[in-house]
Amino acid sequence: MKLFRYMASAMVAVSLLASCSDDVVAERRPGADSDPLTIKAQFGKNLVGRVTVDGQPRQGVVVSDGINVMTTDANGEYQMYTTGRQHVFISVPADCELPTLLGDPKFYKTLDYSDAAIIQRDFRLVSIPKKTEWTLFTMADPQIGNEKDITDFVGMIPRMAEFASSLPSNVYGISLGDIVWNKPEYFDTYAKEMRNIPVPVFSVIGNHDHNEGIKNDTESDKDFRDALGPTYYSANIGDCHLVVLDDVFYRGVNGRNDYTGTITEAQLEWLEKDLSYVDPDKAVIIGLHIPTKRRNSSTHVTNNQALYDLVKDFREVQILSGHSHNHYTTTIASNITETTFAAVMGAYWYPLCNDGSPRGYGALDFKGNTLVNKYFIGDGCDRDYQMKLYHPEDAVLWNPSKNAGDPYDKILANIFCWHEDWTVEVKEDAGSWTVLPASARLIPSQNGGKCWDPDVRKCLVDGVIPANHGGSAPENNNDHMFLYTPQPGWQSVSFRATDSFGNVYTETITNN
């Protein structure tokens, strides 16, 4: 639908341009991003520009309006015909500093149109040494929707800023959607507060970032675009190619939740063109909102395979998502992994997420074209707090059909970011470490479809976790919890979890 509308408009506008001499330069409406017209437009082109690095023309920089994708010529210039597009943007080269405005990424320019206008948009970049190591600070689902949310979000910002500042140099950020909770007027508030975090943060659009008063996909995202820029784009950092996509197809006809997890054909066509300029030996990082797939569920983005087909030949692909408000990692192929992050707001600004993990944020460390470390940190928690252990009297609550006080002899470990490539071991008293068998893991589909974190269960009021937005339901599909039966008279039990990067997390519980 989007692509058809753009093409139809383009055919009308081309016919108008064809009636004019290619020497005509029309008056342009002034805009915040306007540049003086110094490039003679070719016949049929209405958008021109120049890319310079340290004042010198740069050839080969990828430029796009979201439909057209091209590279600058030997003079650093590009030309295209565009209509109906709000932005032109560049895929910032790896040896250039990411442009920012007030600390926000500003790799794009806004377009303004007038009849037969020739628009010029230039990009002036500054060179830097190509990064060999860098870190991506990640967060998902702030969902600020009222003044209480803003107060809670503002209160968390200093801790996020401290965490981001503690990371090694060369840090960027990404916010994985649902920035607001159906309150587009809060985009500016969000942007203002995020500037207190000392790294530039890329923005992803989520379902709650669409204007529910506009009942279509093409315009309901305009408030987001006005405040935060394009809804899909790319950039190069070190030996990695970062792509942001919009995988929310919004209708809104039947309420705010009338949407589908889908990547439009226009985006897929854009992505294919964009990736044609990327060396297959680079790592590709894709940020989007709705998970393309979940390891223990049949739910997925409708056309996820089309996305996987476009990136399958790259050395390493890391997909980052949010939306679910809880943790899971999904292995899609030997070179494609998706990490879904729990919500920075927890369960609608309750300190816990609906899977029992603390609300918080994460970091991914890259060296060359390889992800070398990944971890999540709970807001206000120690870096090593990656699991919660429960005594039998609380552990029984994982089963919604059981109650506190029911006889139970097992200890439960909720390992927040566990994945199938982790190793989980247990040690009782002075015994040796023993790898837990696969049967120790609680699998919802084998337990009535519901496995609840005990702390989440204890927080429930009328079946929900009470919070700013009225509450959140516990996560039924929680598959990162483990059971262990200690010997009678046990004194202490320790769990040790080792992830695929060699991080080791240990917690001990004592018999009271």
Structure description:
The protein is α+β, with helices and mostly antiparallel strands and 512 residues long. It has three domains: 2-125, Immunoglobulin-like (Sandwich), CATH 2.60.40.10; 133-378, Purple Acid Phosphatase, chain A, domain 2; 387-510, no CATH class. The chain is 16% helix and 27% strand. The chain is built from eight helices and 31 strands. The strands form eight sheets. Strands 15-16-19-20-22-21 form a six-stranded mixed sheet, with no helix packed on it. Strands 1, 2, 5, 10 and 11 form a five-stranded mixed sheet that branches. Strand 19, helix 6 (304-311) and strand 20 (316-321) form a beta-alpha-beta unit. Helix 5 (265-275) packs parallel to helix 6. The model is unreliable at 1-31 (pLDDT under 50).
What is the name of the CATH topology of the largest domain?
Purple Acid Phosphatase, chain A, domain 2
Order of strands across the main sheet: 15-16-19-20-22-21
Number of domains: 3
How many separate helices? 8
What is the molecular shape? elongated
Low-confidence stretches: 1-31
If you compute it from the alpha carbons, what radius of gyration comes out, rounded to the nearest whole angstrom? 25 Å
Strand residue percentage: 25-35%
Sheet with most strands: 6 strands, mixed
Would you state the CATH class of the largest domain?
A: Alpha Beta
Helix content: 10-25%
Mean pLDDT: 93
Helix-and-strand structural type: alpha+beta
**Total E-strand runs:** 31
